[in-house]
Amino acid sequence: MQEMRAVVRYSVFTLLMGLWAVGQKTEPRLKDLFRGSDHYDFAIVVPASGLECFWHFAHQSGNFYLTYLVQWMTGLATDHHLYVTVISPEGKLMASVEDTVGLISFETKATGFYQLCLGNYKNHFGGVRVFVNFGVYYEGAEEMRRQAKEGEKVLNNTLSNIEASINKIQNQVVQMWRHYSYARMRRGADHYLLLSNSNYVTWWSAAQSVVIVVAGYLQLFFLKRLFHTNASRPRC
């Protein structure tokens, strides 16, 4: 009788353990998981017509944020816009943005891995380099707003630096083009000066040659006149 009770208890325990294991949430076994820290920032290149996804763990009642900035393009890309989505652990779309610079923030309703996807759908022949900053805060709305303001400040500073670099490069290009145009004009002036000098030397040499020939002929003519003889006596 005791052996029968032990078998029944073991069977019930095994059944309960199986149901408990089925009820637990399984974490995705993917290479781009972020669970060790609450905040991340890095740069990544999204290929042409490509999609890059990341999974970040967050607890319930947290403040999730995501900011991104398209820095530059590669290949034959022409559109800076990037399509960004955030999906909850239940598979619901939490937010989506399609712009060059974007900010996403919301309160997490469930505990689990949130999926972040960056889609470069508008460029079929070139990739884009994106700076990404995301994380979760659990200290209340005030801290979240403060961090969001800091993120916006970082983005504004980055945009200001990029604009200053672009203006500096444009000024340098204008200076280079000015020097190139000046050198080209100088080269043209030197070319026409060489042609003018060549024509001058040619015509002056021809004139001197004519003068020398005429002078020699006249000298020979007068010398022949000195030794001219007639019937009576020679002149010289």
Automatic annotation (TrEMBL):
It is found in: Endoplasmic reticulum membrane; Membrane. This is GOLD domain-containing protein. Keywords: Coiled coil, Endoplasmic reticulum, Membrane, Signal, Transmembrane, Transmembrane helix. The keyword Transmembrane helix applies. It is a single-pass type I membrane protein. The chain crosses the membrane at residues 7-23, 201-223. Residues 141-172 form a coiled coil. Residues 51-136 form the GOLD domain. GO terms for cellular component: endoplasmic reticulum membrane. Belongs to the EMP24/GP25L family.
